[in-house]
Amino acid sequence: MILTNAMAKKIPDTFVELSVHIPTINLDIRYFTANNFIGARIDGYKSPKAYLSLQGADALRNVQSELAIFGLGLKVYDAYRPQQAVDHFMRWAKDPNDIKMKLKYYPEMNKESLFREGYLIDNSSHSRGSAVDVSIVSLHKTNPIELDMGTDWDFFGPDSGPQSFAVTPQQRANRILLYHLMKKHGFKPHEKEWWHFTLEDEPYPDQYFDSPIQ
User: Fold this and answer.
1) pLDDT digits (tens, 9 = 90+) for 46-59
2) Is-above-0.90 flag for pTM?
3) Is the dihedral of CA 39, 214, 128, 20 positive or negative?
4) Domains: count for the chain
5) b/e map of 49-66 (b: 16 or more CB within 10 Å)?
């Protein structure tokens, strides 16, 4: 299964589909669409599904169960991410003229600074199968409504920090609720992105996978 440099083409059989493992979870897989910071479907996203290591999925299910007590639940924007998707990001980053999504996703950032500031990296924890991008939604609605987090998912800039004071107290409280529940159940928050969490005890800490999502 292992190729070179800790890169594996095929994901392990222990990866699970989140909508099966956690039936009440909401998905908004924007890398399957053009509604993302690149403005096109990302390589490797052949289906709007989300996969995660079994350990990560079990921990996420614990978060979902705790939120359900309050009529809330999780929305997943991204989970396992094939390495080919990360490579797509790298190619995009090298084209200074492709800034069509700048106004929505990085209005105050220069494109070339996204790597330097740590918003994009060439070896993503998502490709190890234990990182997830999530928000909180109400489960009492026919169409679940996301709690106001102050910025959109994948908004690159200082306003996206989990405890940024650039957002309102209510928006910050919503972020902190997500932050503490994810930490409680074994996830490590990202210091610059309120939505991004990586399982502390990763089952594949040194491997990156490249199976497309289908």
Assistant:
1) 999 999 999 999 99
2) yes
3) positive
4) 1
5) bbbbbbbbbbbbbebbee
